[in-house]
Amino acid sequence: MTAVGNDPADPAVSPVIPSPLPGSAKLHVDRRWSVSPTDAAYHFGTSGLSVAVATGFTHPLDVLKVRLQMQLVGQRGPLTGMGQILANVVKKEGPSSLYLGLTPALTRSILYGGLRLGLYEPTKHFSETVCGSSNIFVKLASGAFSGAIATALTNPVEVVKVRLQMNSNLRNGGPIAEGRKIASEEGVKALWKGVGPAMARAAALTASQLATYDESKQILLRWTSLEEGTNLHFVSSAIAGGVSTLMTAPMDMVKTRLMLQRESKAVGKYRNGFHCAYQVFRTEGPKALYKGGLAIFARLGPQTMITFILCEKLREVAGLKAI
C-alpha cells in the first residue's frame, strides 16, 4: 500500500515542497556556481582579461611606486614626491621607461588576476556550503585563500617585473632573458624571493578588495536606490580600492624591498618579511612602511574600479551572474 502523495511517478500527484522564505529563492540562485568547462573558461577568462586591461592603464603608476619604495634604503630623510620622481624618470630614461616591465606585468595579470578573482567565488561557495553562512568573515577567508594561492603560483613573473621596472638597462634583454639570468646567477629559488610577503599582501588585498566590494554591493542594494549596474559597480569598487590600499601598502613595501635586495646592494640584509618590516621601521621610521602609498592608492584605486566594472560587463556578456 502506497501512501497518497508519496509516489513521484504519479503525474496527478504534485510533490510537496516547503515554501521558501521571502528572498530565499533568489539567494539560492545567487549561491550557485557552475563548474561546466565553458562556464569555468568564461569565469577565469573574464577575470584575467579585466585585470590585464586595468594593469595596462595603471602600469606607469606601478613603476613610480617601485621607485618611491626604493628611496633611502636603510636611511631616514626627506622623501622625493611622486611628481618629482615622475619628472626625473622621464627626463633621464625617457617616457617609455614608465612602461618598463609591462610584458611580465600583463602576463602576470592574466594568470594572477584570473586566479585571484576566479577562485574567489568557488571558494566562497565551498565555504558557504561548509559553514552554512555567507557573512563577511567567509568572504574575507575566501579572498585571502584565493589571493595567496594565485601569488604563490605567479611569483616568478612578479620578481622579473620589478627587476625590469627598477633598471632600464635590462629592457633590451627582455623578461625571458632576465628570468634566466636570475635563475642562473642567484638560483631558481630567487624567483620566489619575497613570496611570503607577496602571499600575505595578496591575501590581504584580495580579502579586503573582493570582500569589501562584495559586501558594499549588498549594503548599497539594501540601503540605497542603487540597482545592479555600472553606478553600483563604480561606487562599490571605489570603496574597495580605498580599503585595500590601507591594508596592503606596508606589505607591498616589504615585498618590493625583498625582491630588489640585489639591486639595493643589500644582499642578505633582510632575512624574511618580518625582519624586513622591522628593519625598515627601525632605520627609516614607521612612515617608511607607507613609502609609495600615494602611488599605490593612485594605481590601486583606478585599477580596482576598472577591474570590477569591466569584469562585471564581461560577465554579463558571457552570461554569468554578477559578482
What does this 3D model show about the protein?
This protein is mostly helical. It has a single domain (35-317), classed as Mitochondrial carrier domain (Mitochondrial carrier fold), CATH 1.50.40. It is built from 11 helices and no strands. α9 crosses α10. The longest helix has 33 residues, at 37-69. Mean pLDDT is 81; it is low at 1-31.
Q: Secondary-structure map with pairings?
A:
Blueprint: H1 24-31, H2 37-69, H3 82-93, H4 102-118, H5 120-131, H6 136-166, H7 174-186, H8 195-223, H9 230-259, H10 273-284, H11 293-317
Spatial extent as radius of gyration? 23 Å
Report the CATH architecture: Alpha/alpha barrel
Q: What is the share of helical residues? A: 55-70%
Biggest sheet layout: none
CATH topology: Mitochondrial carrier fold
Look at the structure and give the mean pLDDT: 81
CATH class: Mainly Alpha
N-to-C CA distance: 50 Å
Q: How much beta, percentage-wise?
A: under 5%
Uncertain spans, ≥5 residues at pLDDT below 50?
1-31
